[in-house]
Specification:
- Helix content is 29%, strand content 26%.
- It is of the alpha+beta class.
Length: 505
Amino acid sequence: MMKKLHLIPTLLLGLSLFGFIACVQPTRPDDPEEKEDENRTYTGVNYFAANCMSLYYLWTDEINGQLTRWLTKEMDANPIEKVQEIRYKQNGKDYDRWTEVTDDYDAFSSSVEGVSTTYGCDIILMMLDQTYVCAVVTVVYKDSPAEKAGLKRGDVIVRINGIPMTTIDYYKLITEGFLYSSSCELTLLDTETGDLGRKVSMTAVKMYENPVVFHSVFDIEGKKVGYLVFTSFTLKAIDDLLTVFEQFRNAGISELILDLRYNGGGYVKTEEVLASMLAPKANVQAGDLFEQEIYNKALTDYYLKEYGKDALKTYFQTDFTWKDDGFTYTCDTRSSHVDLNRLYAIIDSGTASASESLLVGLMPYMDITLIGEQSHGKFCTGIMYGAEEWYDDYKADMNTSLYSYKKDVSNWGLYVMIGRYGDCNGNCPAMPDGLKPVYEAKDRPDLGYAFGDEQDPMLRQALILAGRTDLKAASTRAAEAPAPDRLPRQIVKPAFGKRILTERN
């Protein structure tokens, strides 16, 4: 896992004696030595978080008064609650729904890279009836405890450790008993009889959940159409994406169905690599503008002064370099580029951040057909910053008593919205409420169709649009099974909705 995700802090600190940082040294709380010991942990975290937001937050000017009050009068506040309170709002509602402080930074940062202690499956929550909730398995990752236990997409979990999930207590039961537990016993629903079915016992392991979940090629009247299920923009996914797209290229696909319904985002670098494999060849060869980033005024001025007029712009390219955990990696996308006539994108409320940004940046250049349901609406880019790292990075700007706060911030960190993205013209159709599909189709994992099954309602709609005339009739199975009410995405992976910068090269 790359610990140095805070590219901009790294860049700015090199100028601390001369320029930008000299004007924005960490703000100091009044009389830190007089704070009660019981408040020192929160004081240290608040000092870190408030200073970070003062410098890097996209809406720092809009919440300047709240930041000042936080730094001078509220250094004993609960930092998790404080960030939720002051992050930017419009008409009383969170416009920024993502900036957050965490007291488990290691787990948070690892999950973004696809590595976590997990059972290796994803779920969505649905209502069984007015009293009971169920969890439906959407994705089972290769070589995971879930796969070894025989769990499959479409399995319906109705009990956790023998306890049914009611509308009153399902949240605590599913988080403590399943998502964040080390072992569990799940009771599945027998979908044929409607009775309780088999039990599944699992022990969580630390593993990488490979987001390149499934790929295949459909032959539609002589036309080759690729299909890819992709669930997260991890850096490790780049190698697998290159391999899959080289296979697509060798198969001669001219259209692609990109299934992003469960993709909550990830690294901007992975997004850029994928975009340069999907964009028209002429635009990639010309190095046309893919996207622009918009930051707060101070960071914008700094970037333009330090790196020139193209500092906030990203262009299509074929050669990429990035850093991960102290190592430098490179790739060449030439042999993996597919020159598409059309891209079909499957989206829903689980499609967020880097997934939305990818589509936004490609829209001015190619024919993209959106299928499914409205996406999440994550139009921002964030950086992740560990509190201990921050104290070391800014040590030169602190006196000894302030630096002593470092001992109170172990494993705390901040995910802060540093900017928002726009296409080559600066537009962002995903802002503020998400991308809207042209063709509606509902995700129905409860029907039990595996990825690639043409009866899956979302894939089915894409195949019809791609020319499958034999799929016009509604699927009997789908028509006879009314869709259960789907609960809002109240429980998601820590990586959901993340679009994260790596170090600038």
